[in-house]
């Protein structure tokens, strides 16, 4: 295996682990807890190739599915990933992938990729939540999306900045 590929696999694993830690920083505000896992998905997309970004978040999802307590509130297992909020966790794969597809482009392209990824994550998660709970679309949006938009925008800004800093100061030297 080439050195660059090994490095990217290692970074993907580290970002999956970081996402697990970030998910534990929780503020319970309703049926979908506020946590920092979306920041990990954004960062994966900004630092990795599209395939590796999806692999990183897929690893996080798999860790949760096999029972490791990596989801918000130290949850894990099939019951957790298939819970009403599990669609948002599955949406991290889309978020990371879209972000990574745009990460090599101009700043507006990177922002667009992050925004599209977040919209896809919200769409999958909200559809999953509606199917699991029978909640109406307006109610699901008011519970599961609207309260998170400002914080998720802040996470995107922080990931954008941190990724640029890491690329300049750390990752080029490794």
TrEMBL record:
It comes from the Bacteria. One of its GO terms (cellular component) is plasma membrane. It is found in: Cell membrane. It is a multi-pass membrane protein. InterPro entries: BioY (IPR003784). Keywords: Cell membrane, Membrane, Transmembrane, Transmembrane helix, Transport. The chain crosses the membrane at residues 87-104, 111-131, 137-163. Its main location: membrane. One of its GO terms (molecular function) is biotin transmembrane transporter activity. Belongs to the BioY family. This is Biotin transporter. It comes from Candidatus Ruthenibacterium merdavium.
